[in-house]
């Protein structure tokens, strides 16, 4: 039986249940916050908020969330372990690196052809996170996260993406992405991964729900990738009703087997702190799909078996990763 890694250890694929595939719990900047703590961050209060929120989410029927907080976004697995120990749902974590343009100085000096000559550290880190665990926590990553934004595939982003491709080919773990839809960066991602030997059915192109360009989305789907319609509630970018229109259109075009839904939300983010979210994006939270989006698409005539496909079957396939035939 296929097993899927979670913070509390591996579970059978049949137990993954209704899943949100692109979320965050805490987004932090430890180096900055060591000297300039954010006034809205309190460790104990934030942990309690996350525990209460995830237990409430589980009561709504969500059984698994994928936390795509990787280095570059303040990943700290011991904090997530403390949350996971007190909640009823499964938390899955990721490896990868989050940058739109440049890597930190360590990577500028260290690696093949660098001043400190050695094998590519990103490859080592990604593969170790997947096969051994993150640091000394024993928690294994079950997704690989990369990002391209308005700058495109810069020299350093290419380094991250190439390491992700190698880690996927070594381990079979699915790659998931951040894109900038206005610059159609999903195309660049697909071209890169195809050229580097990654079957596109093993790549989730993220943030596609920010787009209303059905022809662009169909292009990505027809190339084989799954799309993440994963920013419901981020209405400062695009209204949820337009996101629902895109979702329903793609289902009606026959793409239900290649769609996932999520929010890209968090309980605390130093980049968009709780006070800002409350004022500017009040629906941007982990319960928005359960409370508002699924009822909307049911009213549009979307069948329960289709919802199960998108919320259960597709995430399980993605988290299972590539399996050798």
TrEMBL record:
Its cofactor is a divalent metal cation. Zn(2+) 1 binds at residues 22, 24, 145, 264. Zn(2+) 2 binds at residues 145, 178, 207. The modification N6-carboxylysine is found at residue 145. Keywords: Hydrolase, Metal-binding. One of its GO terms (molecular function) is zinc ion binding. Binds 2 divalent metal cations per subunit. Belongs to the metallo-dependent hydrolases superfamily. Phosphotriesterase family. This is Phosphotriesterase. It comes from Cryobacterium lyxosi.
